[in-house]
Design goal:
It is a single chain. By secondary structure, this protein is mainly beta. It is built from 25 helices and 110 strands. Strands 44, 46, 47, 48, 49, 50, 51, 52, 54 and 56 form a ten-stranded mixed β-sheet that branches. Helix 9 runs parallel beside helix 11, helix 16 packs across helix 17 and helix 24 runs antiparallel to helix 25. The N terminus and C terminus are likely disordered.
Length: about 1750
């Protein structure tokens, strides 16, 4: 709206200010906004205005300054103006003893995006009235605290008098809600819970705030303690009532309000009250509910308040909390107090004897803190308070000085948009309101605020179907708004008609509108949002002249191809200022009168080196070059020589005067002296005065020159030449004549240079004593050590064989051989580089290999580098601290010369690609020779040449190597001793040392692994070898103690034993890793004293249970003799490196001999080697593909040739990289109330790495499940926190929830669920004690978004169920619940496997691997493909389990007798109480009630509870013993009798008092635990009427397992149940079930029978379906989706699979058959799980997925 218009001069002044203050970027924002009306324009930005002038041609939405400059009339500009008005302002009176603020009220209206700053003054007096209210926990544990408080009333009053003379004191007490489970509801306990105690209560105001201390003491003496059951107390109810009941408590309006909260226990908070058995409670209404006696009355009706509620209410009522708590609960309240901006926390002694000292310390701390908080702020406005006087704390409060008036800066800002929605489109409550800016101790400032979102006044006065718009549009705000189908400025052009294009074509143009616009009604409408303009869109606003690359010098705008400059600028590109300010000299003149000013720069009449930008002469610069400037003129005028010789000297502006003597240098300005080139004589002159000589000045020149004496100087060069001529001749002879060189070297005068040569000429080595495969051979430099010399050398192997060269010449030139390469890097060596596992070493290795591979890839047939390591080399001169890299390059034999040339080239350049190397050093080693270079730096006398010795098994007993210094390519040194002979004597070995066998098995119960090492004596003497352990699946210091050392065999000794200490597997490791076998290696190396290593040199030690070891031994066929190895050895230096999430690059060095190929074995680490995959390769490297992400693999390689395979290399392990995880598992909702829910989810089925965080998003959706507004995001930073409590949701509104996981590779896809809490059943939840679950407030505004509380990991829910139950990833829940008889709830299955190719697809590799066995059932034709953990062979240690078929008649239920209750759920209510719930069983008749029996698992009294109400499916059991296991049995009754019972075992684990093991510690956590169910059920169809069922041993059986009870019945009833007893205890059990019917779903239940009774059940439903015409049912035949009419929470799915491996699903494994007939296998799972399965497998579309979910 336009509003009242200011005067025109005011508007023009405002426009000028805007043009200066806001650059073109802001105008662009208004211009570029896609707006269609005036209202939309002025809402774009606070500076946007709209022009309603009818004749205005430019863009109407712009800044006000731009509109006025473009010609819009001032009265036609519409702009919204903000307002700021102080409505109440009383000055602060510092003489008053109360808190004050100034101003007290104001009114502010802002445009979107606008902000307003103002100051707020706050005064806190040195002494102010104080109200102290003590709120004390009256549970029985606080009895001694109450006694001490009664004695300290006077001391408390004395502390208050020290702070203020005006104080009041009050007292209140609290316990907890008087209902189950918080309070013992037995009548006698309700009357007196403890001896000499009051009845239980929630909260009571005992003493209102009073000034009478005696009254306070007297009333307090009459108080008695009370009591409750659970450890947390109901203090939050008491705090809220204390805050809101202002009149009852007696809070004074102008005093400081302090609330002391004293307890030793934790607290209940919102949603805890919704879980009590008395019924679901509604949210707290935040109202006062005290009766005349001061007792809280709504404890049964309302829930506890939340933490954000308390923070808000205490802030509104100026109440500052002081938490006085004991050590037991300090950690809870430490986090709670951090949410209050001003609060205090102190440790209370057990008897509260220090409460007075604690309060005094808290008072002093609180008085120095002041918090200013904006309450009730609309979402569209933001408030921020800062101060230049006082420092801000981490909680947002200020450190203040009392008695001073503090000044604070307040910023009030209207935001433009909120989560993508413009502020003017938000509800009205989010646009305006009253903000209460409140300091801690006063009422504060009231601000009536709002965002200006008015509609333009001109839009309310539009002319509909105006004649000015050809009756085809409305005239509004100065222009036509055309109706649909019409366009043009007057709406006279129909958009549906084809207009003539000729008027839109420029002369000479073929395209209409220059191809930059659209022709409408004969006029061009240009494209580009204003970029193109002109009648024919011929001008581009980006194509105007530029200055320094900037369009129009950023001092103008481009219009019609020309720059329209801003005021004060001109020029084609607006680069010339109109002002002469830049041409003003230091005297105030223009260019010093020596030039003229043009385009802001001075153009001097006479330019010289001594004039600056304003033509001002710098005389200081003249003095510096004066002699040189006068030189040519002096020479010309005085002597007629110099540069101006032959010309007149008229150009010189001075005269010279010849004198006999010149003045001294200190008497003149400059004394100059130069040499005259014409006669080689020196002349001198002086310059007098204080400046450069002018036109009439005179320079004094000394008449006499100083010339050298006349001698035979021309003879000097001739004599020098004659003297040097013999030297030159001698050098030529030395260079080109070897004979002369030898003769001249004998002359003493010619032997004064320097020489390099080897120190020794022969070395003799014994192979048995050698510790290395190389020899450092010293090279000496003598004579002059100045300068740098490099020496090239080479070494030749086996020179003792005359025909060796011709033999090697016949070898295949394309054969790959390893080339060793050594380079000196241009970086110093560090200790970390010498350790292969360090990060620095890995980074440098990657850098070296990448750069060297880039260089050597131009060599044909060259492979990537491998075996890269780093070292230092002593005796390497001044660069011995530099890093030397040794690496191996596989290349053809014929590439040796090319490699040598390429290496020398890059060493000389000092760089290999981007890798810097030190010139002068390299070594290139081939199979039988090597070449290299070493460098002598200046001053270096000795350098070692590191020569390889080519140690080979096929070497002669005495072989010779020849080292030769070839030449000196850099430097002047001559070669002295050039040759070195090396003789290596190969002696007969004194003994061969090896292990007895390659594998040793050790039971996990043993403490030491004893590994024998044997020696075969060949010659008398001693032998020594080194040994070292190496990790595999067994890890050092976790499974065993690592060892390394030396084994010394004395003469005659043939046997030694290595003893490796084994460590016991921790309980958590055993749960996580299961009973899998673990392995580690022991390697022998470094033989000494003539010893040699035999085979095997490496031994594998296997640790496992005895049964596992037996099967492992049976799976390894050790009886077959090894293949002949011939001359082939094991491949050397195997190396594996991950090349991605599903690839590993594996390479090695060829072994001795002539291999024709290589065979690679690789398998998942932890699996048996019999499961390995095989690959064949012709080159010494291979790429393993189709692997699982983030999975550890083991691999080894052997070479084979004409005579067979050689030995395998030692295994190496490698882990593939991470991939993003799959979507998380099922989303489960525990509906606490209509506005509170607990969301939990399962870990992704395919973690593909280490899960690091989860992101939860939730937001409202409409009836079409489309989002309404933005989603709120919560980051759950921790892989183990998979639950979130969400508060303050809107009632009866559907929400969309999404959860996604993140690992090292990034975020994975999200899982989605839409739920309306109002339509879901509400379930009780365990009472949280320790704060660890994230709680978020769905409706909190900006002030409370940072509030985050934590509570325990309370419960989990099964897939797709909206009812709480145990999670599928744990059996140990803190303060949680246990749920029995849910299929797959125990989740023994850690990896889901769908084998689709030769190597399969790994879905969750980082968890313990599930190996699938191939055991034969019935006949070989019925070959089951269901494999189980740790079974590796087709031969089992025992036959099938013994089946004892019980009488089926005994298991048949009579008609009308109820079935077994389908679920048993335990919820912990405390360390000695729990709630037992069950689901109603199926029954043809009406139920009459239930019976619940329980007793200690190890025997004792049997307790029975009869429940006559059939609708009651839960009961609370109290007075249980902590840390004792109980067995519960539940059964139902009808008129026909009692049905079978459901049984479960449960234990409540908690901390107990050391002196009383049956008494739990107050406030301690309590944990539910239970024996686990058998592992997942695996079904394999054998025939149309039989199948095989197998399962795994429970991970945590309760006692020793005696056998298993298996029950089979039709899922829909109709046939009696059949029970089987399977004897024995093994890791896997099997059962063949005959006599089944086709197309009928059967329910199977398996539970373990132990010495303590029967454990929980594992349940599964299966159907054998057959197609018409198929003689035999087969899994995977159907591709459709079927649903059986199954009751309860089960639905069915028919799997579709063409794999030959099993398909594992949530506790159930589906096997497949090698049969020709088609068929299918159906199993029942939850609806949500079916949705997840179909989405994961990808066999059905998303559309089908959603349809199925909805069914």
């Amino acid at each position: 709206m336009a509003g009242p218009h200011p005067s025109p001069w005011t508007r023009l002044l405002l426009a000028a200010l805007l043009s200066v203050s806001f650059p073109g970027a802001m105008a662009n924002r208004c211009k570029k906004a896609q707006v269609k009306s005036c209202t939309e324009c002025i809402r774009v930005d606070k500076d946007c205005a709209y022009c309603t002038d009818e004749v205005f041609k430019e863009r109407r939405c712009n800044t006000q300054a731009e509109l006025l400059a473009a010609g819009c009339r001032l009265e036609s500009v519409v702009v919204m103006e903000s307002s700021f008005e102080i409505t109440e302002e009383r000055q602060i009176d510092t003489t008053l003893h109360r808190s004050q603020v100034c101003p007290q009220a104001l009114r502010v209206w802002l445009r979107p995006g606008e902000e307003r700053h103002f100051e707020l003054q706050v005064f806190e007096p040195l002494e102010s009235p104080m109200d102290l209210y003590i709120l004390m926990d009256f549970s029985n544990s606080m009895s001694d605290d109450l006694d001490n408080l009664k004695k300290m009333g006077q001391d408390l009053a004395q502390v208050l008098r020290q702070l203020t003379s005006d104080y009041t004191i009050g007292f209140g007490k609290f316990v907890d809600k008087v209902s189950v489970p918080q309070t013992d509801m037995r009548p006698e306990k309700l009357k007196e819970p403890w001896p000499n105690s009051d009845p239980p209560f929630s909260f009571k105001n005992v003493i209102s705030l009073t000034e009478d201390v005696e009254e306070f003491r007297n009333k307090l003496k009459g108080e008695r303690i009370s009591g409750n059951l659970d450890a947390p107390e109901g203090g939050f109810d008491a705090i809220l009532q204390t805050a809101v009941c202002t009149r009852d408590i007696g809070w004074r309006p102008d005093s400081t309000h302090l609330l002391v909260f004293s307890t030793e226990s934790a607290f209940h908070y919102e949603a805890d009250g919704a879980n009590v058995l008395a019924g679901i409670m509604r949210r707290n209404d935040e109202e006062c509910h005290l009766d005349p006696t001061g007792t809280y009355t709504q404890y049964r009706m309302q829930d506890y308040p939340s933490v954000p509620t308390l923070v808000r209410l205490l802030g509104q009522h100026n109440i500052i909390p002081i938490f006085a708590v004991t050590n037991y609960s300090y950690s809870y309240y430490e986090r709670l107090s951090s949410y209050f901006p001003v609060s205090s926390l102190g440790v209370l002694q057990e008897d509260s004897s220090n409460i007075v000292d604690l309060l005094q310390e808290a008072f002093n701390r609180i008085r120095s803190n002041l918090d200013i908080r904006a309450l009730d702020s609309p979402r569209g406005l933001r408030t921020e308070v800062t101060s230049k006087m006082f420092q801000k704390t981490d909680t947002g409060s200020f450190f203040i000085r009392r008695g001073e008036v503090g000044t604070y800066q307040v910023q009030l800002r209207a935001i433009e948009d909120l989560d993508g929605t413009h502020v003017c489109q938000l509800p009205e409550a989010d646009q305006k309101g009253t903000i209460h800016l409140k300091p801690s101790f006063s009422n504060g400032l009231r601000m009536d605020v709002g965002v200006i979102c008015d509609v333009c006044f001109c839009e309310l006065q539009k002319e509909e179907r105006s004649s000015r718009c050809s009756f085809h549009g409305d005239f509004m705000c100065g222009h036509c708004v055309c109706h649909e189908g019409w366009s043009g400025k007057t709406c006279n052009c129909s958009t549906g008609s084809q207009s003539d294009l000729e008027p839109c074509r420029q002369e000479g143009e073929d395209k209409a509108c220059s191809g930059r616009g659209e022709c409408q009604c004969g006029h061009c409408v240009c494209y580009g949002e204003g970029r193109y303009e002109g009648r024919f869109c011929e001008y581009d606003t980006f194509q105007c002249p530029r200055a320094s690359g900037v369009l129009c010098n950023d001092r103008g705008r481009c219009s019609m191809g020309q720059c329209v400059c801003e005021p004060g600028w001109t020029g084609l590109s607006c680069d010339c200022p109109l002002s002469n300010a830049t041409c003003i000299d230091s005297n105030g003149g223009l260019c010093n009168g020596r030039g003229y000013c043009e385009c802001g720069r001075c153009h001097c009449n006479r330019q010289s080196l001594y004039t600056d930008t304003v033509c001002e002469i710098h005389y200081s610069a003249i003095h510096l070059g004066l002699c040189e400037d006068l030189r040519s003129c002096v020479q010309c005028q005085a002597w007629g020589t110099g540069e101006k010789k032959g010309r007149t000297c008229e150009e010189c502006g001075f005269q010279v005067k010849m004198v006999d003597e010149l003045k001294k240098a200190e008497e003149v300005l400059e004394h100059c002296s130069f040499r005259d080139e014409d006669d080689d004589c020196n002349y001198s002159y002086t310059v007098e005065g204080d400046s450069a000589p002018g036109p009439n000045s005179t320079v004094l020149v000394q008449r006499r020159k100083e010339c050298p004496p006349g001698t035979f100087w021309w003879l000097i060069p001739l004599l020098i030449f004659l003297l040097l001529l013999p030297v030159l001749l001698l050098l030529l002879c030395w260079k080109y004549c070897a004979c002369c060189k030898a003769c001249l070297a004998l002359l003493p005068c010619c032997n004064r240079g320097h020489m390099v040569g080897f120190k020794e000429d022969h070395y003799m080595l014994r192979e048995s004593l050698m510790a290395s495969d190389h020899l450092d051979t010293p090279l000496l430099r003598s004579g002059n050590l100045k300068g740098r010399d490099t020496v090239r050398w080479k070494i030749t192997n086996n020179v003792q064989r005359p025909g060796f060269a011709s033999h090697t010449a016949g070898i295949n030139p394309s054969e790959l051989v390893p080339y060793g390469l050594s380079l000196r890097l241009a970086r110093l060596c560090t200790e970390n580089l010498l350790k292969p596992g360090t990060r620095e070493c890995d980074q440098l290795r990657q850098e070296v290999e990448e750069n060297l591979n880039e260089v050597y890839r131009q060599i044909t047939g060259a492979h990537n580098l491998q075996q890269t390591k780093f070292r230092q080399q002593p005796n390497a001169g001044k660069k011995q601290d530099h890093t030397i890299v040794d690496t191996v390059l596989m290349a053809p034999r014929s590439a040796k010369q090319a490699l040598l040339k390429l290496t020398e080239k890059h060493v000389e350049q000092g760089a290999f690609h981007e890798l810097k190397v030190a010139p002068g050093y390299y070594t290139l080693t081939a199979d039988q020779d090597a070449r290299g270079m070493v460098e002598f730096q200046e001053g270096v006398e000795l350098v070692d040449v590191r020569v390889p010795l080519f140690i080979r098994p096929e070497d002669d007993d005495e072989k010779q190597l020849l080292v030769e210094a070839i030449d000196v390519p850099v430097g002047t040194a001559t070669l002295g001793r050039r040759l070195v002979n090396i003789t290596i004597i190969k002696e007969q070995a004194s003994g061969i040392v090896s292990f007895e066998q390659p594998e040793y098995s050790v039971s996990s119960g043993e403490h030491v692994a004893r590994i024998p090492v044997v020696r075969r004596i060949l010659d008398s003497g001693k032998s020594q070898v080194s040994y070292r352990t190496q990790d595999n699946t067994a890890k050092g210091n976790r499974d065993y103690i690592p060892m390394e050392g030396e084994l010394l065999f004395q003469p005659g000794e043939t046997w030694k034993e290595l003893q490796v200490k084994l460590l016991e597997l921790q309980e958590m490791d055993s749960l996580l890793r299961g009973p899998q076998t673990r392995r580690f290696y022991i390697q022998l190396s470094n033989p000494k004293f003539g010893a040699r290593l035999g085979q095997p040199q490496s031994a594998t030690v296997i640790i496992g249970d005895r049964d596992e070891l037996d099967r492992s031994i049976m799976n390894h066929t050790v009886s077959s003799p090894p293949l002949p190895w011939g001359e082939l050895g094991a491949p050397q230096n195997p190396n594996a490196k991950a090349a991605g999430s599903r690839k590993i690059h594996f390479n090695w060095l060829p072994p001795p001999g002539k291999p024709t190929g290589y065979r690679v074995k690789y398998w998942i680490q932890g699996d048996s080697e019999s499961e390995a995959h095989l690959l064949d390769s012709k080159v010494p490297s291979v790429e393993l593909t189709n692997l699982y992400p983030y999975c550890d693999y083991e691999m080894k390689v052997c070479a084979y040739g004409a005579q067979g395979e050689g030995p395998y290399s030692s295994p190496v392990s490698c882990r593939t990289h991470q991939e993003v995880p799959s979507e998380p598992g099922r989303l489960a909702f525990n509906v606490v109330s209509s506005t509170v829910t607990q969301l939990s989810w399962a870990e992704p089925a395919e973690t593909n790495g280490e899960i690091t965080a989860y992101e939860v998003c939730y937001g409202l959706v409409n009836e079409d499940n489309r989002p309404i507004g933005p989603m709120k995001k919560v980051l759950v930073d921790g892989p183990k926190k998979r639950t979130l409590l969400i508060e303050n949701l809107r009632e009866s509104q559907p929400y969309r929830y999404t959860v996604k996981a993140r690992n090292g590779a990034g975020w994975g896809p999200e899982r989605e669920a839409i739920i309306n809490l109002a339509t879901q059943p509400k379930r009780p939840m365990s009472i949280p004690i320790i704060p660890d679950i994230p709680i978020v407030d769905a409706q909190s505004g900006e002030d409370y978004e940072s509030f985050l509380m934590y509570s325990d990991d309370v419960l989990r829910s099964p897939a797709g169920s909206q009812r709480p139950s145990v999670s599928d990833d744990t059996e140990h829940l803190v303060n949680g619940r246990m749920d029995f008889a849910f299929p797959g709830s125990a989740n023994s299955l850690h990896r889901m496997t769908v084998s689709t190719a030769a190597h399969g697809t790994h879905l969750s590799p980082q968890l313990p691997h599930r190996v699938l066995s191939t055991s034969s059932t019935l006949t070989r034709d019925y070959h089951s493909l269901t494999r189980t953990e740790h079974s590796h062979s087709a031969t089992l240690p025992r036959d099938y389990s013994t089946l004892t078929s019980l009488s089926s008649q005994s298991s048949r239920l009579a008609a009308g007798v109820p079935n077994t209750p389908t679920r048993l759920v335990f919820s912990a209510l405390g360390p000695t109480s729990l709630k037992v719930s069950w689901q109603e069983p199926q029954c043809e008749r009406a139920l009459q009630g239930y019976s619940v029996e329980y007793q200690l698992l190890n025997g004792g009294e049997l307790y029975r509870l009869n429940i006559p109400n059939p609708s009651q499916t839960s009961v609370v059991v109290e007075d249980l013993l902590p840390n004792h296991s109980y067995v519960f049995r539940v059964r139902a009754q009808s008129q026909e009798g009692w049905g079978p019972e459901r049984e479960g075992v449960i234990t409540i684990e908690s901390q107990v008092h050391p002196q009383s093991p049956l008494c739990p510690l107050p406030g301690s956590t309590f944990t539910l635990s239970t024996p686990s169910a058998p592992g997942p059920l695996v079904f394999t169809a054998l025939s149309p009427d039989s199948l095989q069922l197998s399962w795994e041993r429970p991970r945590r059986p309760d006692g020793d397992i005696l056998g298993y009870l298996v029950t089979c019945e039709m899922a829909h009833g109709g046939e009696p149940a059949t029970t089987f007893l399977v004897d024995g205890d093994s890791p896997e059990s099997r059962l063949t079930v005959p006599g089944l019917s086709e197309n009928v779903p059967y329910k199977f239940k398996v539970q373990a029978k132990t010495t303590q009774g029967f454990g929980p059940e594992r349940e599964g439903i299966i159907t054998i379906e057959s197609q018409d015409g198929g003689p035999f049912p087969q899994l995977g035949g159907h591709s459709g989706l079927f649903q059986h009419p199954v009751s309860g929470e089960y639905s069915s799915i028919t799997t579709h699979s063409s794999t030959t491996e099993p398909f594992l699903l949530d506790g159930l494994t589906l096997g497949s058959q090698h049969l020709e007939a088609s068929g299918s296998l159906t199993r029942h799972v939850t609806q949500e799980f079916v949705s997840r399965t179909l989405t994961t497998s990808g066999t059905l579309s998303t559309h089908v997925d959603q349809q199925f979910f909805q069914t």
